[in-house]
Design a protein that fits this description.
elongated, 2 domains, single chain, six-stranded antiparallel sheet, Arylsulfatase, C-terminal domain, five-stranded antiparallel sheet, mainly beta, about 270 residues, about 10% helix, 15 strands, Jelly Rolls, 2 helices
C-alpha cells in the first residue's frame, strides 16, 4: 500500500508527475505509480520501491514491484530525470531542524523594519512581519480630511489575528487570541490633517505584554494582552482595507482608508525581548 503521494485517479491530460517530501519519493506516469517511503538514517538507495497500476488497481492494494521489475526500474529512472529537472537534489530529510535553522539574509523574517503603502495587495503570512513573542511598534501615517473611518491593518481571521483601524472617529487596536479579544480605544478622537496613529507593544513575559495606543506620539490608552499567539495566522495581512476582519463583532466591516492612509511602518524588537 502506498504511504505517500496521493495522486489523483481522475482522468487528466497530465502524463507524468513526480513527488518528493522529506525524502519520500513517488512518480506517476501513464497509469503507473511508483513510491518509496523514506526513514531517517536510512540510505535512499537501500529503500524499496512499490509499484501500482492505477488503471486496474485504483486503491493501490497490489504491489507489482516483483512482478514487473522492468516497469519499476523505468519509473525510478524517470523519477531521477524529473527530480533533476526541477532541482530536487540534494535530498534533505530534515523536518523540525529546517524550521529552527538560522534565517537567510533575504528572508522577510530576518528583517526588523517593514514599510507598506496603500493599495498593497494581500500579503501572504510568510512575508509579513513576525511579531511572535517580541516587542514591536506599528506607526500609521494618515491624511484625514472628513473624519474618515476605516482599516489600517487587518491580519488573520475571526479566530486569530489583529486589527488596527479607526472607528467612530477613534483609533482602535484589537488582538484576537483564539476568540479572546484584547482591545484598546483612543481616549480622544483622531484629528483631521496629517496625523500619526501608533500601537506600541512591549513584551513583559513569554507570549504576553502591554500595548500602548498613541496619537502623534502621545499616549491615548493601554491594554494588557495576557496571551499572544505562538505563531502567526496563515490567513495573511491586508493594508488599508478589510478582507478578513479578525476583530470580533465590535466593528463588522470597517471601510477602507483609500486616499487617507499614507504609509504603515512596522519596527520589530529582537525575538524574546
Amino acid at each position: 500500500m502506498s504511504y505517500c503521494f496521493g495522486a489523483s485517479h481522475v482522468k487528466s491530460s497530465r502524463k507524468v508527475q513526480y513527488f518528493e517530501m522529506f525524502g519520500n519519493r513517488a512518480i506517476y506516469a501513464d497509469g503507473w505509480k511508483a513510491v518509496s517511503r523514506h526513514f531517517q538514517d536510512v540510505e535512499y538507495d537501500d529503500e524499496p520501491w512499490e509499484l501500482f497500476h492505477l488503471e486496474s488497481d485504483f486503491s493501490e492494494a497490489h504491489d507489482l514491484a516483483e512482478k514487473h521489475p522492468k516497469k519499476l526500474d523505468e519509473l525510478i529512472r524517470l523519477w531521477h530525470v524529473e527530480a533533476g529537472k526541477y532541482d530536487v537534489f540534494p535530498l534533505d530529510d530534515r523536518s523540525v531542524e529546517l524550521f529552527s535553522r538560522p534565517l537567510m539574509a533575504h528572508s522577510p523574517y530576518a528583517r526588523d523594519k517593514f514599510v507598506y503603502y496603500p493599495s498593497t495587495s494581500h500579503i501572504q503570512n510568510k512575508a509579513t512581519p513576525d511579531i511572535t513573542d517580541r516587542s514591536y511598534r506599528i506607526d500609521a501615517d494618515l491624511h484625514r480630511t472628513h473624519n474618515e473611518d476605516g482599516v489600517i491593518i487587518v491580519y488573520g481571521n475571526l479566530w486569530s489575528g489583529y486589527g488596527f483601524y479607526i472607528a467612530n472617529n477613534h483609533a482602535v487596536f484589537e488582538y484576537n487570541f483564539c476568540g479572546n479579544i484584547s482591545r484598546v480605544i483612543s481616549k480622544k478622537p483622531v484629528p483631521n490633517g496629517e496625523v500619526s496613529v501608533s500601537f506600541d507593544f512591549r513584551r513583559t513575559g513569554h507570549l504576553q505584554g502591554t500595548g500602548t495606543l498613541e496619537i502623534d506620539g502621545l499616549e491615548e490608552g493601554k491594554v494588557q494582552i495576557p496571551r499572544t499567539l505562538t505563531f502567526n495566522s496563515m490567513t495573511g495581512m491586508d493594508i488599508g482595507r478589510n478582507a478578513h476582519a479578525p476583530f470580533s463583532n465590535f466593528v463588522k466591516r470597517p471601510a477602507s482608508l483609500e486616499g487617507v492612509l499614507v504609509r504603515v511602518t512596522f519596527t520589530l524588537g529582537d525575538a524574546g525581548d
